[in-house]
Specification:
The protein is mainly beta. The protein is built from three helices and 25 strands. The N and C termini lie far apart (70 Å). It is an enzyme of class 3 (hydrolase).
């Protein structure tokens, strides 16, 4: 009888593991392949060899690019090199990526940049906010951009108990921002289990020097975040749920959910086209290849444009798609005057004239 009970428990456990395996494959689009959609006028950007995880472009055409992210479970082609922030001037005939100098007093050896966001103050001062993971913790670093010196002056490090496992931020004031928490747990095994079980424990937090609070919750893995052109709405990508949440922003900084745009790809970072207000998403068409990296069968890349975001039927178009032969693991796309930059978690970066 005891042996029968053991067999029943073992059989039930194996069945449960089988169901979880199927669920994780579906969640990560393990069987999906992409049809190529590649503009003609594209080339890889020199000097960006170790990722270009997030990109933010100023109205002047200066593009900030975070590079060198070290993240549990993902490949790292330069484990001994600290992360960097690169700058590109998209007004140039042939834009080049240049690493920005960072002021003394900031520990550059531990710099592990993730999501970034810019804010332009009333006096024209440009601030750059950077999610940083020193020792795999989460901080937000605030820099002042000094354009003539092509450098970043470090102003402040933000830490808070609600700012854990921070993925991305969007600045909405000189010291105010929204931040996404992509995992509830910090241990890699527990975060994997969290993903497999589909727990909706992650959230969006608002930070200011006088108030820090959770303003939206119930995400599988809150990831990319950005604001509409008129600053009335906040857009949040839930990467493992494969959707984008449209949320209304209120005077007290709280967010109210309005709608969810469901997609068939894992959306990472978001940006907004400054000329149209469309959302652009850097996506992972098959995230299983991202986690189980094989250089002979690399993860592909995909960029979507979502038009008429607030309408009942938003229009979704594929701007770029590649099976990994050119660009692996796309995480972001941003446009400026008919030009597009496509960044990746750990690979290269692509520049195209549309």
């Amino acid at each position: 009888m005891a042996k029968l009970a053991v067999l029943i428990i073992l059989g039930a456990s194996l069945a449960l593991l089988g169901q979880m395996f199927v669920a994780i494959r579906e969640r990560f689009n393990a069987s999906r392949e992409v049809e190529p959609v590649e503009p003609r006028n594209c080339h890889l950007i020199e000097n960006l060899e170790n990722g270009s995880e997030d990109i933010d472009i100023l109205p002047t055409g200066l593009a900030f690019i975070s590079s060198g992210l070290k993240y549990p479970g993902l490949p790292d082609f330069a484990p001994d090199e600290p992360g960097k922030i690169f700058l590109m001037d998209l007004n140039e005939q042939t834009p080049r990526a240049q690493a920005l100098k960072i002021s003394d007093g900031f520990d550059k050896s531990l710099f592990n940049p993730h999501g970034i966001s810019t804010f332009i103050d009333k006096d024209g001062t440009v601030y750059l906010y950077v999610v940083n993971h020193p020792h795999m913790k989460s901080t937000v670093e605030i820099f002042k951009f000094e354009e003539h010196q092509r450098s970043l002056l470090h102003l402040k490090t933000v830490r808070h108990k609600l700012l854990k496992s921070v993925n991305d931020i969007v600045a909405v004031g000189p010291e105010q921002f929204y931040a996404t928490r992509d995992h509830y747990f910090t241990c890699f095994f527990l975060t994997l289990l969290e993903t497999i079980l589909g727990l909706r424990w992650t959230y969006v937090a608002f930070y200011s020097p006088t108030e820090v609070k959770v303003v939206a919750k119930g995400f599988n893995s809150a990831n990319g975040i950005t604001a509409s052109l008129d600053q009335k709405y906040i857009y949040v990508a839930d990467v493992t749920a494969k959707n984008i949440h449209i949320m209304e922003k209120h005077a007290n900084w709280n967010l109210t959910p309005l709608k969810v745009i469901q997609l068939d790809t894992l959306v990472d970072n978001l940006s907004v086209d400054p000329s149209t207000g469309d959302i652009l998403g850097g996506c992972h068409p098959n995230a299983m290849k991202l986690l189980n990296y094989d250089p002979n069968d690399p993860p592909g890349s995909e960029v979507l444009r979502i038009q008429n975001v607030l309408s009942e039927k938003p229009r979704v178009n594929t701007v770029y798609a590649n099976n990994g032969s050119v660009l692996q693991g796309s995480s972001v796309a941003a446009v400026y005057h008919g030009k597009i930059l496509i960044g990746t978690v750990f690979h290269k970066a692509l520049y195209c004239v549309l």
